[in-house]
Please model this.
Amino acid sequence: MAKNRNDDFVTEITPKSEDFSRWYTDVVRKAELADYSPVKGCMVIRPYGYALWENARDLLDARIKATGHMNAYFPLFIPESLLKKEAEHVEGFAPEVAWVTHGGSNELEERLAVRPTSEAIICSMYSKWVQSWRDLPLLINQWGNVVRWEKVTRFFLRTTEFLWQEGHTAHATAEEAQEETLKMLGVYKDFLEEDLGIPVITGIKTEKEKFAGADRTYAVEALMSDGRALQAGTSHNLGQNFAKAFDIQFEDKNQEIQYAWSTSWGMTTRTIGALVMTHGDDNGLRLPPRVAPYHVVIVPIKAGNYEEEVLPAARELEELLRTAGLRVYLDDREEYTPGWKYNEWEMRGVPLRAEIGPRDVKNKQTVLVRRDTRDKTFVPIDHVPGAAATLLDDIQTSMLSTARDFMETNTHPVKDFDKFREIMSGPRGFLKANWCGDRDLEVEIQQETSATIRCLLPDEEPTGPCFYSGKPAKHVAIFAKAY
Amino acid sequence: MAKNRNDDFVTEITPKSEDFSRWYTDVVRKAELADYSPVKGCMVIRPYGYALWENARDLLDARIKATGHMNAYFPLFIPESLLKKEAEHVEGFAPEVAWVTHGGSNELEERLAVRPTSEAIICSMYSKWVQSWRDLPLLINQWGNVVRWEKVTRFFLRTTEFLWQEGHTAHATAEEAQEETLKMLGVYKDFLEEDLGIPVITGIKTEKEKFAGADRTYAVEALMSDGRALQAGTSHNLGQNFAKAFDIQFEDKNQEIQYAWSTSWGMTTRTIGALVMTHGDDNGLRLPPRVAPYHVVIVPIKAGNYEEEVLPAARELEELLRTAGLRVYLDDREEYTPGWKYNEWEMRGVPLRAEIGPRDVKNKQTVLVRRDTRDKTFVPIDHVPGAAATLLDDIQTSMLSTARDFMETNTHPVKDFDKFREIMSGPRGFLKANWCGDRDLEVEIQQETSATIRCLLPDEEPTGPCFYSGKPAKHVAIFAKAY
Model:
């Protein structure tokens, strides 16, 4: 994997403090997570980045299945007339749609949208499949690619094509749809915190920020280490809007015809960007063990009886760790020094490094080095699998807790606009404030500070007037500058 | 899952012998593997069909990774100029390409092809990544969707969009590329036979049938139960064609600049169609245990103390089987009779059914019924996990062996064209014959009998003249009418 490193790659990583944006791009490219492609707006996810995505995807997929959903696959193309059925929906997405107009050398009778999201095509199938209350709830998820035209490209964060999952469910009652919307918001929160080590706040979007066609949009919002927010997943209660537009009707237990209630929820390859920006440091990536492509990299030290003793011992160690169910990589490449390899694998974020040299072979031990704290431990070979597992658990927990401390430290209660402006032009972060709910003022604040309302906190009651208008507050809102 | 069955679905399956094509469509729809979509040429893969695909995909993915490949992801779109770089390649694919011409409301400067296959985009990246012999071999696989415009739609077998994996590798020598091409052909053969229970023959394509841009195309060919062949996977040795077109060059160990040698290989959702047509019978699907969404379905019999005794015993059995690592579904739906459920799950191909009624509860036993042979076994509850595992192994083996017998019985050595025509207008099958290698005659035979050369058998020497031309034979060929 590390073989494909080119001389024209960045050779040093820009320090985070110097230029966060360049630091991010450097890390993504140098760690070989992704690369630019010859297609405008589109990137290539390289094997190391894709392995990270596969691990994340499998963990989220297990959570989605554990809550009773099954996966399915719907067409990539959506006929224009179908996309237009839900008025708000098409208005929201039309400016970003890629249109197929020709098949082979023939012009199509009707243009096909490359799906920007699949409500339209999926709801049109649900109207066929749902007839009776017995057909509900319908709990389906899809993993796939979607396309939303972008003028600016940022690795993982903003690309014309991206990978994601989109859940689409239909229910017999409004209550069930609301329960589902919140359940999946909870699944996202658990996945981000427990698997990716990314703490989040959850809340509801304002009318201005909600999904095109939804009654209510909920979101999980994370705070990146440059003080900007990243929306890491959304869960929409679509009410009966799509059921009415696409005619999803069923006969209820009283033989009455009803429209179904539907939800949709999605999480994308953006989370990989969030992972980089939450945990990375000036030496590169730091990966939470649960999703790291390798848990442990073994670096044999070329000294003493290398071929006869050190390398065979390193191979035994590799086998021992693999048998214990760990993902392990033995870096026995001849053309690089151990020091170069240490830097390389630190930069690529592998949680644990095992060093083994002639003296270690003699003492039947290895040195385990943590990526997050750089702590070193000498461990007898036989104890390595257990010791590694314990360290990995500790790294996973401690990465979340470090990130949570950062988020809490950078969540600022704000009572007036002067303070708001001051924080926004300084360290930024989550700004927590009482809010009157006026959409025009929301736009005004954004124009002046580039902060938007990330979410309203439905469980908190405002205890004073709006920080901006001085009018009575209806909500407690979290503001931030967003990715 | 079985909840979304509609009244407008087929209620009976057309017998295989009456109309194979209708039988196939009936089974796919009634078993809820797939459904028609509002997009011409595209189908929807329903949850039960997708679960089958996921299981197959994961097994093939593990084999691809075990042979040293890693997954990555490349853009869906290919700029027209890039697709045109390899002349034969674009000529082969241009008639099937879907073209994106607009992004939002803007016309694009250059049209983008929705990938029909990814050689062009992947090779353009390889030319960046490959500089030195140290960068080789480059062993990458991609799972994704591709689009090839189709006028006719057949579930899984022929759809405009389909899902697949495509491997793309680059090597330092011609020998290594050839070794890789054959290795992946072997991976496909093992996957089809061991995991899907589909026996295949492997061989090389004629010039007429090979991949556009390849030096040599190898294929795995299976025989469906209607005597038609299905190409289930292909592995291409691309020689230096793509390396030259896309400038994939490297410095070898002697500091000389060389073009790389490349391969590509793919397998698609077609294999699900092959699975249906290889194993299905007049009662519906028969699924090999390794890929079946459920290994066992439990049907509790509503009699005696149902709520207090039978249902709890069924739930215990479910838990017992799940803990043993089996995929299990307890069908405790109130609205259907046990007899209806037996038919339903037979039709959906579940390898084992466990029946449990009041008498079974009393005797601490269950009845296991095999889908393939319908054999019944009474098994004490405590022994069920072991007994089920043994039966599932046996079903897996016996399905392959039944299919292999069919393939062998229907592989006909043919010495003259009269016999050839007779078999082709009768039972069909694989027709094995000595072949002179004349491309014009290959076309002639196809026009007259609709049989094509599925592959040449590289390891067999012809022992007589060409069955058709009487000229000296160069190959032993397998002819068949293909899907």
About this structure: Residues 384-409 of chain B form the longest helix (26 residues).
